[in-house]
Structure formats: C-alpha cells, structure tokens
Amino acid sequence: MLKMKHKFIIPIVLIGALAFSGCNKVLDKQNLTAVNPSDVWSNASLATAYLNNIYSALMPGNTYGSGNGTDEGVAYQHQTSGWLLGTATADSYDAFGMYKNIRNINILLANIDKATFDAATKSAIKGQGLFWRAWAYYSLVKSYGGVPLILVPQSPSNLDSLALPRNTTTQCVAQIVKDLDDAIALLPGSWSQGDFGRIDKAAAMAFKGRVLLFFASPLFNPSGDQAKWQAAYDACLAAKNFCDANGKGLYPVYSQIWDNQPNQEDVMMREFSYPQSTYFQGGLIPLNWSKDDVGYDRPSLELVNSFPMKDGSAWNPATMSYDTLFKNRDDRFYANIYYNGDPIQYLAGMRAANTYLWTYFESITNYDGATGLEGNHNNVTSDPLWSNSSFYRMKAVDKNITQGQVYNAAVDWPEIRYAEVLMNYGEAANELNKTSEALNVLYAIRKRAGILPGAGNNYGITATTQADIRTAYQNERFVEFCFEGKRWDDLRRWKRFDILNNMHQRHGLAILLKPGQTDVNPLDDINVVWNKFTSTVIATDKADINLPDQYYIYGIPKADMDRNSKLVQNNNWGGSFDPMQ
What we know:
Strand order of the largest sheet: 1-2
Largest sheet: 2 strands, antiparallel
Radius of gyration: 25 Å
Distance between the termini: 49 Å
Strand content: 5-15%
Low-confidence stretches: 1-6, 12-32
Number of helices: 19
Shape: globular
C-alpha cells in the first residue's frame, strides 16, 4: 500500500543532537550542522526537530524475533536463549542506556517553558516530552523495579552528583503516572494530517492504562491490592471511553489491520514509508524469497494450537488430527500462521514464482539432530534453512517487497491497538468482579475474529468465575497479540513462567511425504492433497526450559553498579533492594 507523504514519518537523518525530517520540506536553509543549542528554543522548527530525535530513539517499530524468546516461536536450530534455559545472569539484560534518552528529554522539558515561540506549540512539544519520559522510565521500572529518578538535566562538571540512589518502585510509578497525567492535559485530541502519528491524548491515556495494569498485576501486586486494580480499571476505562468518542474501534477485518493503514484501530502508531523510514524483515520470511538472516518468529505448535476453532471451541490435539489442523480455525489463525500449502501467496516472491509455500520433507533422517530436524526438504519450496516448526509468521510482514528489498520493509506499526485498550479494560474489570464487562470484551474480540456466536451468544467463552475468566484473558491475549512484543511481559506480570516450564520444550511439526506419494504441484489445493502427508510432533529446544522465579525481575548489571556506587542490587539477585516497595 502506497503511503501518503503528509503524515509524520519519524526521521532517520541525525545531525548532532537533532533529527530533521525531510518528509514535507527542508526545515531551514541555514547550515544545520552549525546550529547553536540556544537557537533551538527560539525556533519552533528546531525545537520540533529536537523532539523528533526523541521519537527516533524511543518509538517502537515492527517486532523482529520477539517470539523466539517466548512460547510464541521456536528456537532456530536449537539455539535456545539463556533466559529460557535458566543460565542468564544479572549482566544478561542492560537497559540503563535509557538514561541517555532521559537526559535528552529532561533538556527539552527544562527549556520548553522558556521558549520564545507560540504557547500552543510549546504545550504540544512539552506534552510529547512528558509522554516519552514516562515511556522511558516505564521500560526501566518494569524490568528492575525502582531506579534513580532524574527529572532535570544533570551537570557533568560534578561527577559525584551524577551518582544517585534508587527510588522505590512506588515512587517511580507515581512519577510515571504524573508525567502521563500532565501530558494528557497538554496533548491534542488529534493531530492534523502533517503530524498524524505523533503522540496524542488517546495514546497517552492508553499507555497510562497499560502502565497501571502492569503494576496492578501479580508481579508487583502479590497481595492483589484492589486499590491498584481500581486505578488500572479507571485509567483503562477512561482511555476506552475517549477512544470511543473519537472514532477509534476494532477494525472489522483482523487480517487487514496491518495492510490497510491508517485505520480506526490505531491508537499509538509508527508510520513507515520508503525511502524515508524502513526496516529489515529478512529473517521473518523463507530464504527462497529473502536474504541475510533467517530463523525469527517461526510460530510454535503451542501458539498454533491456541487459536480457537471457528465455533469458538478449543483445538484439542488429543482428539483432532494435525494433518488437518488448518481447517475451521478462527480468522486470526489464517492472518498470523502460514502452514504447509496455505493457499495464500503472501509474499511478492511467491506471486512472481506462482507457488505456495510447502514445508514438508521428502525424507527425514533425524527428528532431533544437532540443529533440529534433518532430512531432504521438498523440491517445490527448497528453503535451505527451513522453519523448525514448519510454520511461518505472516503478521505485519511486508507483502510487496522482493528478495532484494528486504531492507525496505515499510508496514506501519500500531504499537497500541484499540484491541489492547479494550482487553486491558476487560482484564482490570474482571479483577474487580465486574464480570459482565469482562465477558463483553472477550465477546467483542472473538466476534471480530470471525468466531460464531453459538447458541448462547458467548462465542465459545464458557468461563463464568473470576479465575476462569482470568485464564480466558491470558489465552486470548496469546493469540490476539502474537508477535506484537507483549507475550514476555504478560508472562512476567502474571507470574506465569509455569506455562513455559510445564511444556518442557517448544514444539513444531515434522511433515513428511508418505511413501509412494509424489511431490505436490506448486499450486495444489492443500484441502485436496493433505492426506499425502503425515505429521509428527517434534521438540525444538536445546534442552528443557527452566525459567526460575528470579527472572521475573531482572538484576542490575555489574557494569552499571560499578559506574554508580549508590546502586543497590535487587534482593532476588543477592542484594538488599526490595523492588516490591
């Protein structure tokens, strides 16, 4: 889909501390490499360019490999991460570089009130800056618990003053919420076309709901404090109501959310457009039509099994055949999962070759070799480094780029969809025993997924108790938001590493051509030729998954503690800091 050039494209040209967007026009004819910092706050275009640099650093884009570290995807050639194997350390995750972004935001916030241009522009820039500071601190606090709260630019002339102790988690969350409340008061309800895609009031309200939901969940609320759930509910409901009043809602066709952009489901959205702003997607698609990377976000059998049937009932591997797993599933299955012989040419290379993607083997020599499944892949789709699960991700893959253009992917990314606003609200409602509200959200999500209402108009949802509805939300988020970068944090905040540990390993299917059968033709109908194959469940990890509870909250890396002697390690990593405070 061609992008119109009047939207806000996050710039990719960095000049010093500034980023200048060439989306519409050159902002200034002066020598931009010689901008005096004091000029920034007397020129609205330069101040906006400074803000654009913050967007460039912090606005998320299309996910790439998020499924490899969860039960959404399988490990490529048994390359299971140390986190899943239980061998990660406090040094395995370091997000403290975020303070560079926080400093840049603090500089903006310290100067914007003194700027000499019009008040409306100043308010809009300040509101966006406050949002991004909340975003930056949230990324730290959800990972480590409380961190040093730095709200003004620090002077580098006094090194001792740069070392600050950690604030409590409660203090940090309060500051994040304050920044968001202040941002909401300043941000516009919507932007004009030239700035479409910037943070607006709906995005800030929706993010506030996400934040409060995370910290009301069991990880940081082990006692189930109802006041925290009430705060989350209030924020999520306010976001939902504002979105409803401003034309947001579920896009009618799930499979087209990422193809028909922009649309009413976008709440916080990053737009991409060739050549100004693109990304690499090579590892998401088969090597037949890609290059330079492989093995990311190959859907696991656990994810595939989780998609409901068309009538809303659950897929049951004990009573159903994997040979026909593609039949009568909900619409999200067909939008997200590419399976053996799926009759969709979702890639430009497939259309050019006039073929479907076939993932079966003509012979298998080892079902659990050093790199996983070993054998002779079929000749219709050679795929020299095949998917270890036999499935491929389709969500948000650019369907129009060729093998030589895998660095030019440009599918817009809705970081917050209306579906998330809705489900955040419903999940919080359930924790406050607002059963009908919680169930109505699930019904709406499933109705959009093409699931039939059934005799009870419950779209296959049979849960009635709070505990069962909670499980229903966990299951529904797994499929609705697969490969959107939400699964790991969901498992953390729910304290549900048991889901991963209990499966022992993630699984895929080894699909084998039956003896005496001949290869399919490129465009054969899988509904006709499915019985040419047998399917065997295979494990895909290097060893059994062994996630300890210690990993729910990360340890402070040694390098960061060495730089700041006042940092105290978390008590779950041998220190004395309590991240629950």
